[in-house]
Amino acid sequence: MKKAFSLIELLVSLITISVIVASFAPIITNKLKQDRISLSNASKLSSDCSMFSSGKCEICMKEKGANICISCSLTCPTGQIADIKTCKCKTLTCPSGQYVSGSSCIYCSSSYENCETCTNSSCSTCKSGYKLREGVCKKTTKPKSQEDCNKFSNNNSIYIPYDIKNFNAGGFCLTKKNAGDAGGPDIYFGETILKTLKAGDKSQICPPEIDVRCCWYGHSGRTDKNKIRTAKGNTTDPETGVVTARYCTNNPQDIKVPKNYPKFDYDGCYRTVCNRPAADYICSHYVPGGGTTKIGDWTLASKTDFEALKAIVDAGPASKDDISIDNQLRIQKWSGSSGLQLCQSGGNHDKRGSARCDSASRCHGAFGNSCFPENIWGKDTSVDFTTANSTGYFSIRNTPTFGGYEFFANSVRCVLRETVE
């Protein structure tokens, strides 16, 4: 006959079980608290968690019809962390000033001051108001005057304030000439990087693939290159050579300006134009010779930049005889070579106060095979922002996201908002 358990043996067994339960209680309680699960639902806990695909959920429960994992022993690869409730791995995202190391976020080295994102060995991007220079985040300077722009670009840009009523509170520098033309940013990076095509030559076509960089050169003002017309040509009398219908300004010095003001010196017939990918590349790699800026400082204009440009153009002189305007506002209309000399389409250059440059079907492979020197490329891609002043002066293409805009052949002017001195 089998001997029954004694009272002492039963007590020892109960004490042992109690100790085991007590040792697990803090872990279970902590898990419940972390996932905000009431202890009153402890009776719903189960070790049958086969519904979790990872097979690593050890304790689970059903709450409001959903299966929730309470304890997960899943091991995740580098850069991921276990989501306890689903018992699945998810990408680890670290806050500003930290980086991913294994399955944890580690603070950037104290030597990476003002660093926004980093790795274990370097800073990747800096906080607002700082730029990365040789691995160090350095404080930036923003242009606040024409003198600043002269220094940053070696006299190749014009200062545009964000507020014309507070002129020196801050603004940006805008290059005076189109990329590819005399005094403008360079377009020659090698044909494998950016294709330079002769406007009007049907044998030189920009391939219709996204991200192919193309410029159709006009070489306005250059003495080392032959100039090529990108705008619509003028009609002349075959006997006298007199222009009978003007569509582009070939002699900019003929545009009337107030007495003692510098003449225009940038024609509207031969301006270089580029597609959107080329414009992005040109400006991001622009380093004006003799200036103080570096690669990555210049970019395309934003919607805010264009709004500031429109405001100062509209505030400028209303006619060639208007000399009441502050010289700081004379950056475009009837302003001669001291201004931006942006060109316009559809209007007499004397009445509009700037060179004319009507579009023409001379940029093969571009949208409609047409050159649009009167348009300027912008940076923003969220909206289509086309603006013109009260006289239909100029327009700005801002987005490549629909309508084939990426393939337009527009003027490229680069913007500088901040740099490190």
Mean pLDDT: 85
What is the 3D form?
A: elongated
**In which order are the strands of the major sheet placed?**
11-12-22-18
Poorly predicted regions are 382-394, 398-403
Work out the helicity level.
10-25%
State Rg. Answer: 33 Å
Number of helices: 5
What is the tally of beta strands? 22
Largest sheet: 4 strands, antiparallel
Report the sheet-strand fraction.
Answer: 15-25%
What structural class results from the helix and strand content? alpha+beta
Q: CA-to-CA gap between the ends?
A: 98 Å
**Secondary-structure element series:** HEEEEEEEEEEHEEEEEEEHEHHEEEE
Describe this structure in words.
This protein has 421 residues and is an alpha+beta fold. The protein has helices spanning 7-34, 146-153, 276-284, 303-314, 349-352, and strands at 57-63, 66-72, 80-83, 88-91, 98-101, 104-107, 115-118, 123-126, 130-133, 136-139, 157-161, 171-175, 195-198, 214-217, 235-236, 243-245, 273-274, 298-299, 371-377, 395-397, 409-411, 415-416. It has a four-stranded antiparallel sheet, with helices on both faces. A three-stranded mixed sheet has the order 13-14-17. Strands 20-19-21 form a three-stranded parallel sheet, with no helix packed on it.
At a glance:
14% of the residues lie in helices and 21% in strands. It has 421 residues and is an alpha+beta fold. 36% of the residues are buried.
List the helices and strands and how they pair.
Elements: H1 7-34, E1 57-63, E2 66-72, E3 80-83, E4 88-91, E5 98-101, E6 104-107, E7 115-118, E8 123-126, E9 130-133, E10 136-139, H2 146-153, E11 157-161, E12 171-175, E13 195-198, E14 214-217, E15 235-236, E16 243-245, E17 273-274, H3 276-284, E18 298-299, H4 303-314, H5 349-352, E19 371-377, E20 395-397, E21 409-411, E22 415-416
Parallel strand pairs: 13-14, 19-20, 19-21
Antiparallel strand pairs: 1-2, 3-4, 5-6, 7-8, 9-10, 11-12, 12-22, 14-17, 15-16, 18-22
